[in-house]
Amino acid sequence: MTQLKAFIIPVTPFQxxxxxxxxxxxxxxxxxxxxxxxxxxxxxxxxxxxxxEKILLTHxxxxxxxxxxxxxxxxxxxxxxxHVEDTFLLEALPESGAKYGMAGVRPVTxxxxxxxxxxxxxxxxxxxxxxxxxxxxxxxxxxxxxNRFALVGDVLFQGSVGRTDFPRGDHATLIRSIKEKLxxxxxxxxxxxxxxxxxxxxxxxxxxxxxxx
Length: 213
Prior knowledge:
Elements (H helix, E strand, L loop, with lengths): L3 E8 L4 E8 L4 E5 L5 H11 L2 E6 L5 H4 L2 H8 L3 E2 L6 H5 L1 H7 L19 E4 L2 E7 L8 E5 L4 E5 L2 E2 L2 E2 L9 H12 L7 E4 L5 E2 H7 L6
Parallel strand pairs: 3-4, 4-5, 9-12
Antiparallel strand pairs: 1-2, 2-3, 6-7, 7-8, 8-9, 10-11, 12-13
């Protein structure tokens, strides 16, 4: 089995869980959701000894994608994700950055949009893509079955779910995404969310108040 390793690099005033996910044997990885603080991310990559081959985006909000264009240019790597429905958010990143006092934010055009059933590789790791709208219309989840691990962005949190009061957010759609896309992955699956601590699907199914309303 190709062993997956991941660690969190907190970025932006929102303390977003930018992460470095990598194939332990090959020391090849991807940066997930670089929302900003690019020098901090670059320093973490250098210290890790991992060669970053791509950037992955779960969705288009500023705290997840604000540093993606700069980081991709600096590293010379492609950006994959999210779903094309988040185009409006990625195009408006400079305006969002200005609103939250984040300077130098550039719009993002992914090299590859992702959709349900696509796969993304990181070294010898393979992630299956699931569309999970609700927090944003183009949110996607990256699932590695071998390691029972999912990158869920702001779809699901420990004890909570993503906000839906942003443009084109929808609470009912979000809950449906969690129940129809995440639950079937299995109760043992560990999720790395966009904020806070990792969580497990079975634990959230049993105790998350937003999922048991």
